[in-house]
Automatic annotation (TrEMBL):
Location of region: Disordered: 1-26, 69-91
The protein, known as: DUF1707 domain-containing protein
Chain ranges of the Cell wall-active antibiotics response LiaF-like C-terminal domain: 110-172
Organism of origin: Streptomyces spiramenti
Ranges of residues in domain DUF1707: 20-72
Domain of life assignment: Bacteria
Pfam family, one: DUF1707
């Protein structure tokens, strides 16, 4: 008499889930960590340039984590809980203007917001604020130029402050203080490595309704 044997059960390894795709916020966070590492002397200029290029070519979160694994910020045991979709919708996130082997620009009548990230890697970024809507008292522009250039134009009746530095590159801004205390402040930060960041006022271009919001 024969008996039926139960079918064999496969005990093969399960397929691991795919790596999480990186968001703009993930890239901005890693780029800021690298900028601080450069300022602290943990990274050399050429290392920083190579890693910044890797940040904006990374497709997944693990690819980004590799770029900061040997830095203190990359040794943290756990990351804070990411915001929910509803929470993220209420957060005033920074604008990003990124040019990698190409060009990018912002111009016309647009809301600046409180923070911008301008990244030029072997490319060029042009930011024109002369017709922009300033609905925040201060705008911080984090500019990083690696073998590229970033040009920023501002109205002549605002305050412009430069806090950037050039490493084998140029980081120049014609600082000025507005006569009107209600005028917006544009604070330019960042680094130029084998590249250039420049900011200047455009004669005749003025913010007509200081700190005004049309909505």
């Amino acid at each position: 008499m024969t008996t039926d044997k139960p079918p064999a059960v496969s005990l093969g390894k399960s397929t691991p889930p795919p790596a999480v795709r990186a968001s703009d916020a993930d890239r901005d966070r890693v780029a800021e960590i690298l900028r601080e590492a450069l300022a602290e002397g943990r990274l050399q200029a050429d290392e920083h340039a190579e890693r910044i290029e890797g940040v904006y070519s990374a497709k997944t979160v693990p690819e980004l984590e590799k770029l900061i694994r040997d830095l203190p910020a990359g040794q943290r045991p756990s990351a804070p809980r990411p915001p929910t979709r509803e929470e993220a919708a209420r957060l005033p996130g920074p604008r990003n203007v990124v040019a990698v082997l190409g060009g990018a620009d912002r111009q016309g009548s647009w809301r600046v917001g409180a923070q911008m990230n301008a990244i030029a890697v072997c490319g060029g970024v042009d930011i024109d604020l002369t017709e922009a809507i300033f609905d925040q008292p201060e705008v911080v522009i984090n500019a990083t130029a690696v073998c590229g250039g970033i040009s920023i134009q501002v109205p002549e009746n605002i305050t412009l402050v430069c806090e950037g530095s050039g490493i084998m590159g140029s980081f120049d801004a014609r600082e000025m203080v507005a006569a009107d205390p209600a005028a917006p402040v544009v604070r330019l930060r960042g680094v130029a490595i084998w590249g250039a960041v420049e900011a200047s006022a455009v004669e005749g271009k003025r913010v007509q309704n200081l700190r005004a919001s049309d909505g």
